[in-house]
Amino acid sequence: MSETFDIHFLIQTFFVALSGVPTALIVTIVSLIVALPLGFLLALTRINRIPVLQWFSQVYVSFIRGTPVIVQIFIVYSSVPLFLTSLFKFYHVSVDVYKINPIWYAFIVFGLNSTALMIEVFRSAISTVSKGQLEAAYSVGLTNLQAFRRIIIPQTLVVALPNICTVTINLIKATSLGYAMSLQEITLKAKVAANANYNYVEAYIDIFLVYLMLCSLVEYLFKRYEKHLRKYKTVAA
Amino acid sequence: MLEIKDVHKSFGKNEILKGVSLKIDKGDVVVILGPSGSGKTTLLRIINFLERADKGHAIFDDTDVNLKTASKKQIHRIRQKVAFIFQNYNLFHNKTALENVTEGLIIGRKVPKKEAVEMGKNALDKVGLSEKYHAYPSELSGGQQQRVGIARAVALNPDIILFDEPTSALDPEWVGEVLNVMKTIAKEGTTMLVVTHEMSFAKDVANKVIFMDGGVIVEEGTPKGIFTNPKEDRTRQFLRRVLPEDYMVYI
Questions:
Q1: Coil, strand or helix: which one is B60?
Q2: Domain range for residue A96?
Q3: Is the CB of A139 less than 8 angstroms away from the CB of B48?
Q4: Is residue A195 situated within a structural domain?
C-alpha cells in the first residue's frame, strides 16, 4: 500500500480506467446482440412448450444461473483453448491458440450468460401480451413473423425494458471479471497502473467512479427509450 | 357461398364438435344459439383456422379446403375472405384505432398506405368513431373498442364476418351501441355468422337461426320458426331458460 494519497495519480489513472470503457462496452453490446434474439426465441419455446427445446432452455437457465460468472470464465478460458488446439491440429490449421484476443472468450462467456437471463426476462414479458392479439393479427392476414414484429415484440419490449436494463447494467459490471482472462477492460487497466507504486486506493476509487458513471448513463438512456416506447400507455387501461 | 361439412373437434377426451355441417348464402345473417360448452365458439374459430379441426371441410365458393390439413397458403387465402370479431375485442394495444384498422390492409393486403388510411377512416366513421382515429385502445370504452374491432373487420371488405359473442364481455350500457352497428352492417348486405346470447338480435336481424347443443346442430330455421314453434325438446328447454316468460308469445 502506498503511504500517501496521490491525487495526481488518482486523476491520471481515472483516464486509464476510462480507456477501458470501449472494451467493456463492446463486450456488453456483442453479448446483448447474441442474448436478446436468442433469449426471446428460447423463451418462446418455453411458453409454447416446444418439446426438447423447452427442456433445453430450462436446464440451460439453471446451469448458468446456478454458477458464478467467474467460474464460467475459468471454464471457458481454460477449456476452449484446449478444444481449439486439438481441433486445429486435426485440420492442420496453423494458428496459435494462445494468441487469440481474450475478448473472444469474453463474448462467449457473457453472451451465454446474458442469454440465460434474457430467457427469464422475456418469459415473463411475453406472457403479459394477450394471446388474443396474436389471433387478431392472424385473422387480419398477418403472417407469424409480421404479427410478432409489429404487435407482440413492441409490447413485450415495453414490459421487458426495465429488466433488460438491469441485465445490461449487471453485464457491464460483470465485465470487470474479465481481468481473470486478461481482458483489457476498466478494472484490469487501472489495477495494472496501480501495481507500480501500490496506489490501489486511488485506482479502486477511479474504477468505482467509472462504473458508476457508465451505469448511470446507460440507465438514463434506457429510461428515455422506455418513455418513448410507452407512449401508447399514457392513459391507464 | 360458404359451406361447412362434418366438422369434428376434441380437446383431449372432450369431444366438442361431433359432426357439424351448415351452409351460408351471400347476404345471410346466421345466428348460432346454444348453451355454453355447446361448441359454437370452437366452430367459429375453426372456420378462421384459429383452431384446427380433427376432421371436416370448408367450401368457399368453389374451393374446397380441408379444415384439418389446410396449407399455410390456403389458410392465408381464407383469412382474406373471412374476418373475425372477438369477444374480448383483441385490439392491438400498441396501435391507435386507425392503425388497428389499417394494419391488416397495409401489411396483410398490401394496400397503399394513403388508400388504406382513407378506407380505415371510412370504416371508423361507419361505426361512429370519427372522433377517435388517434385514440389508443386504453383510452376507449369497451363498447368503443368493440366498434373498432368491427371497423377492423369491415375495412377488409371480407366475404363473411364471424362474430364470437361480440357483446358478452361488455358492460350492459355498451351493448346497445355495438348491436346497432351490427344491425347497420347487416342491413348493408354483409354476410354474417354470429354467436350471441342477444335474443333480440337473433329475432330482429337474423334470417336464419341455428341451435347447437352438445356439439351438434339440434335445429335450424327462421327466427320466427325457432322462437315461436321450436320442434326439438332441447331447443324448447333452452329458450324457456333464456327468454323472459311471456317473450315467445310476442314474436
A1: strand
A2: 23-182
A3: yes
A4: no
